[in-house]
Backbone:
């Protein structure tokens, strides 16, 4: 069954708020088996809303609107609804009483404006709002379902989860959907496609998408069909087939991040990690500790931004900095071994590179990065040619460093 | 002049990627004086794209599409373009040569699939892409401008900024617009509003918006009018009025970030900075060095995640960790003074807190954070009660630390 999502609000339309509401609703509905057809964003403008609501109702059986249900003058969603559905607003005593009680229990008087929140389009039902005064509105008729929810994310999410999802799940939509995301790193989108496409035969109802990020590409398998068992099996079949073709470039599935995967490997092997970061200056440590519980394996790190710090704290020989430069294989290696000694960790990773925009030379252009790894058994450094943008280079360097460690622990050559 | 923005891609449609691209484009275009009419999101589906492109071209003079320009089979934007505009794809030798050279310079062979990236709809011009192989496409005819950009954010943003904005600015759109963003930190949206609203009288054609982020709020002044001189003056008048009311909470204007402002202050005063980070574990160093040229004042830092590192590297007395705990005013102070000695810097900042989700107690709940500052003249630490989310807490702690230093350097009490 097809569904459209409409977000209402000037702040979203003008780009001052990122439209995470539509993403949340889309994810929930597609997990439920609905086929999301379109998202639209319109401003706080009754005519634009009317047009968007009418077009959506013409195209799709279910329309979910978010935003514009507040009590102030720029909240116009209800006005557009009564125009599209040609009906009046009626004061709902139950809603009014609930809102009034909420104010009373907080020792406050209900502002006069808030009474607007108890107005409902004739014939509509409502979904209660645990966190605010704007209830969800539902008009179901002539085979169409129109739902309007507030735009405050925590309120919208509560009503979606507690009310809208159970309600929509009760409509028999006759289609199941399953999705699996395979996460890869160390290989570009085109090369992945060259490995996959020649041997790919997609079953009916199965799709594959490539999702590139800085330094990683997600492969997303989506299967649709009559039953969840069927779609789970179809998605799993393709995911396994791709894993065989792509092999070690896949580091995880679903929401698993590279720092979380490496963290789990360290924890499972009872090993610790320290880092020495020049051009990333903390980003590697930050991403490693983005994973709750990282203190089980992450000891600490050095933001070795200046050469003095590399020499004084990491014991990088002055000769190396003078002769090979701070951005060199030799320096990355010395940083990693020095870091491991300083922090007494099992593994150490080092990053030194030219992140840009300045500092590049003909011999060592922006993007050149060396990553070092040291353990009790081995130590080495590798050169990477990353991109030309500072943030991109730093993010790619962090992923490359984590991937180097993942491959070392798993003994992938 | 009205503009519509269309984002293409199943991942956005299904909610797995938040549509920050449309927000970026909307912000840029509305700053330029365009009237943003609608955003649409469609999946990787040629028919859905065709319909969306046709509807948008009927309603609005300018249509900007993002996504679906990659080399793989699920990148269908060009196929929809040639259907809507009824023309062929033609191989562009200049584009092909540029892409080939980029691969060669990185010591790599161009994958065969990448050749698709050099195909352009007949009669289209292109905008070069500094970071990737997907060029922007522009078809301008019959009073309509249709622009298609890649979906990778850094690539889209570069082409928008360097190519599309100058191009669209050259079209005469008959209305001037000026915007000034005042950036504040250390104060919430409601308190800012209480300081501003009682004394605010907006001239006609001038608007003020509050844009909250983690740990900071932007105040956005937008003036519209007949000429740029008029709108510049109106916007500047309101901005100055607000600066008077809000005073030292404003740290900068426009795109100026807090790390850039603090960096400039350090540079102007010829001072250096080092950091010691426990719960942020590198994020402060990373954000400081997000500013190109930070090596002029940033020496380095310690990711002092474990207590051993705090004691061994930063010389925090064991007694403090044992008696006051690693998350304490005393520990933050000792970390800052130890950090300053270790790195021989003029200033040192330290952060230690309970970022969550675990580790909170009744006495020290999640969000409690101590930030220390040490210089040749003074040293102190302050307690902050941040939020309940790990990422939010770390980002807020970084901003609070930078703001503490800004106020110290500027002698703001």
Residues:
């Amino acid at each position: 069954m097809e569904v459209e999502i409409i977000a209402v609000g000037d702040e979203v339309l003008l780009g001052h708020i990122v439209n995470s509401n539509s993403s949340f609703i889309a994810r929930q509905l597609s997990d439920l088996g609905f086929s999301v057809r379109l998202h639209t964003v319109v401003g706080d403008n009754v005519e634009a809303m009317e047009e968007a609501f009418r077009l959506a109702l013409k195209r799709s059986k279910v329309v979910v609107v978010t935003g514009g249900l507040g009590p102030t003058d720029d909240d116009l969603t209800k006005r557009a609804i009564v125009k599209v559905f040609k009906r009046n607003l009626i004061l709902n005593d139950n809603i009014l009483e609930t809102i009034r009680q909420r104010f009373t229990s907080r020792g406050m008087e209900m502002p006069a404006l808030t009474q607007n929140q108890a107005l409902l389009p004739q014939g509509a039902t409502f979904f209660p709002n645990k966190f605010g005064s704007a209830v969800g509105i539902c008009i179901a008729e002539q085979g169409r379902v129109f739902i309007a929810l507030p735009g405050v994310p925590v309120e919208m999410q509560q009503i979606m989860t507690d009310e809208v999802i159970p309600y929509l799940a009760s409509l028999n939509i006759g289609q199941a959907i399953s999705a699996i995301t395979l996460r890869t790193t160390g290989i570009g989108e085109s090369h992945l496609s060259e490995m996959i496409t020649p041997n790919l035969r997609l079953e009916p109802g199965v799709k594959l998408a490539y999702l590139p990020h800085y330094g990683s590409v997600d492969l997303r398998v989506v299967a649709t069909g009559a039953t969840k068992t069927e779609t789970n099996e179809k998605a799993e079949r393709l995911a396994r087939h791709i894993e065989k073709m792509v092999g070690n470039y896949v580091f995880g599935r679903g929401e698993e991040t590279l720092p979380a995967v490496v963290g789990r490997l360290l924890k499972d092997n009872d090993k610790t990690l320290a880092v020495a970061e020049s051009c990333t200056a903390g980003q590697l440590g930050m991403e490693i500790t983005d994973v709750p519980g990282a203190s089980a394996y992450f000891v600490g790190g050095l933001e070795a931004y200046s050469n003095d710090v590399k020499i004084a704290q990491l014991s990088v020989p002055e000769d190396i900095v003078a002769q090979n430069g701070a951005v060199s294989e030799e320096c990355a290696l010395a940083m990693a071994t020095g870091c491991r000694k300083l922090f007494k960790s099992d593994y150490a990773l080092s990053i030194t590179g030219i992140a840009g925009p300045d500092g590049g030379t003909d011999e060592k252009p922006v993007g050149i990065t060396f990553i070092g790894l040291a353990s009790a058994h081995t130590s080495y450094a590798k050169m990477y040619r990353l991109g030309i943008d500072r943030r991109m280079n730093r993010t790619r360097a962090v992923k490359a460093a984590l991937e180097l460690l993942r491959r070392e622990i798993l003994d992938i050559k």
